[in-house]
Design goal:
7-stranded parallel sheet; 7 strands; alpha/beta; about 10% strand; Rossmann fold; about 325 residues
Length: about 325
């Protein structure tokens, strides 16, 4: 359709071709042109590395909005500028490697990893067994192992890997593609709980920097909220931003993916109407939600990452 399905009339139009035509004809006749003033992903990357050669960059948002392509592109662009970069993901779906494989040859300064919950849990169990099971009987070791079968073990194991990646961002760029919103908030909640325990129980709390404190540090950590130029993804990203702000974490910028309004020389009436419709959403993001807004154009290619990098890197 040439418009976003929002409001009673447009919901009714789903089942009425005549109403669809009426709405589309009016929209196309009412507006003839559109303006997009979004910066591109290369401009965003230049800002991220403008004053430093290290730091944590996290792409966040709901599922399916483009966090992985955004993280992959930023990581590659940083590496092409000569920075040492680790690209990693906390997403169980782990599509990062699919995008990276599209490139063939990678910059020598780019390393790609994955925080795999099952792998991290097994490593954590082995570590705890080695520490607590030393000089213990077989029965005692079985009790320790039984205790480690708790569902909490995976959360703790992933958090340890997450913390390690955050620590690495003190000497290089770590670009992290996070899991969809719910998983990410759970991980941040674990980080917050760990932070509170450390602050409450440590004699040297004033000298410590927890992972949660690092996420709150706007110089060290840059949170990029990824959305689509549509009402529902915008509102869900806005809710995530509110949750982050309540935790003292302020997003650095919004990155709006699949923008038809960034495609040059768009002439097809239906696509042009979609581009016009999305500019209202982008304007709302810029005025109500974001201090900085950037965009990725709609790219009709199977190999998305090479097409995006070719589009931006001259």
């Amino acid at each position: 359709m040439s418009y976003n399905v929002l409001g009673v009339q447009k919901i009714r139009s789903l089942f009425s071709p005549e109403l669809q035509k009426f709405i589309s004809d009016n929209m196309i006749s009412e507006k003839k042109s559109f303006v997009n003033n979004l910066g591109d992903i290369e401009t965003l990357t230049e800002e991220l590395c403008g004053n430093q050669n290290y730091g944590l960059i996290m792409t966040m948002g709901k599922g399916g909005v483009g966090k992985t392509i955004a993280a992959s592109a930023i990581a590659v662009l940083l590496a092409k500028k000569g920075h040492e970069v680790l690209l990693t993901t906390t997403d169980p779906a782990a599509h990062i490697q699919d995008f990276i494989d599209q490139l063939g040859e990678l910059p020598s300064t780019l390393k790609v990893e994955r925080i795999d919950p099952k792998v991290e849990t097994q490593k954590y169990i082995e570590k705890i067994l080695e520490q607590k099971g030393k000089d213990k009987t077989d029965d005692a070791k079985k009790l320790i192992l039984e205790d480690l079968k708790s569902p909490c073990t995976e959360e703790v194991a992933v958090f340890h890997a997450f913390s390690k990646a955050i620590h690495m961002a003190k000497r290089k760029f770590v670009v992290m593609d996070t899991a969809p919103t719910g998983h990410t908030l759970l991980l941040l909640d674990t980080a917050g709980s760990y932070h509170r325990d450390i602050m409450r129980n440590s004699m040297n709390a004033g000298r410590l920097t927890t992972p949660f404190m690092t996420l709150q540090d706007q110089v060290h950590s840059k949170i990029i909220l990824v959305s689509l130029p549509e009402t529902t993804p915008m509102r869900e990203a806005g809710t995530l931003q509110d949750d982050l702000k309540r935790a003292g974490i302020k997003p650095y910028a919004w990155l709006i993916n699949q923008c038809l309004s960034m495609v040059p020389e768009l002439n097809d009436p239906l696509l042009k109407s979609r581009a016009i419709a999305e500019t209202e959403v982008i304007k709302t993001i810029q005025t109500r939600y974001a201090e900085r807004t950037f965009g990725i154009p709609f790219i009709a290619e199977q190999k998305l990452l090479p097409a995006l990098l070719k589009l931006r890197v001259k």
